[in-house]
Amino acid sequence: MEHSGQQIDVQQKISDYQEIIHTFAALLQEENQALRDYDVVSVSELYEQKAQIVTVYRNLVAFFIKHQEILASMESTAKANLKEASLKLDALLQENNLLLQTRMETSKSVIGTIVNVAKMTTKSNSTSYGAQGQFSPLDNQHSALAVNRTL
């Protein structure tokens, strides 16, 4: 009797794994589109849901790593479907990683450009006094500039 309870638990784990793969893939498709569209609001709204899905996904992957015999004992059609879904998820994860890195580098570059323009403007408009206490427009190299670097 206990064996059939374990069998149901195994089937439930496989079902949960398949469902989380599909849910994660759908979320990544949505997030990737938002990243392509530069829709930062949508990306930030998806963050909490993504964090929860990643936690569940990692737990299920860890379970199947420990119990590889479960996946090995699956029928070939179910195994092939699971492999196909996993490969699709992997491709979406790679695209998501690339899009996130690209957006972060773009933001960093834009902020760097803004900071440099601000420095040049401040430098050209600033005045200072020399060592003798006299006005010295040539010694304006050390003007203070504060930048909020939060992305």
Short description:
With about 150 residues, this protein is mainly α.
Number of helices: 4
Low-confidence stretches: none
Mean pLDDT: 82
What is the succession of H and E elements? HHHH
The end-to-end span amounts to 57 Å
Strand-residue proportion? under 5%
**Level of helix content?**
over 70%
Output the radius of gyration: 27 Å
Strand segment tally = 0
Q: What profile does the largest beta sheet have?
A: none
Structural class: mainly alpha
- Specify the overall morphology: rod-shaped
Key phrases:
0% strand, rod-shaped, 151 residues, mainly alpha, 4 helices, single chain
How is this structure best described in words?
This protein is an all-alpha fold. It contains four helices and no strands. The chain has helices spanning 2-36, 40-66, 68-72, 76-125. Helix 1 runs antiparallel to helix 2. It is rod-shaped, with a radius of gyration of 27 Å. The protein starts with a helix and ends in a 26-residue tail after the last helix. The mean pLDDT is 82.
